[in-house]
Amino acid sequence: MVEMGAKLDPWGHYAIEDYRKLLEEFGISPIDKILGLLPHKHKYFERLVIFGHRDFDVWLEALKRGEKVAVLTGFMPSGRPHLGTAMVYEELKFLQSLGAHIKIAIADAEAYIVRREDRSEVIRRGVEFVAHSIAWGINPDNAEFYYQTAMDNEYYRLIQLFSRKITAAEMEAIYGDINPGKIMAALTQSADILHLQLDKYGGYKYIVVPVGADQDPHLRLTRDIADRFEQEFGLKRPSSIYHKLLRGLDGNKMSKSRPEYAIHLDDDPEMAEKKLANALTGGRATAEEQRRLGGEPWKCSIFELYVYHLIDDEKELKERYDECVNGKILCGQCKRIAAEKLRKLLIEHQKRFKEVITSGIVEKILKKPSF
Question: Are 46 and 137 within one domain?
Answer without folding.
Answer: yes
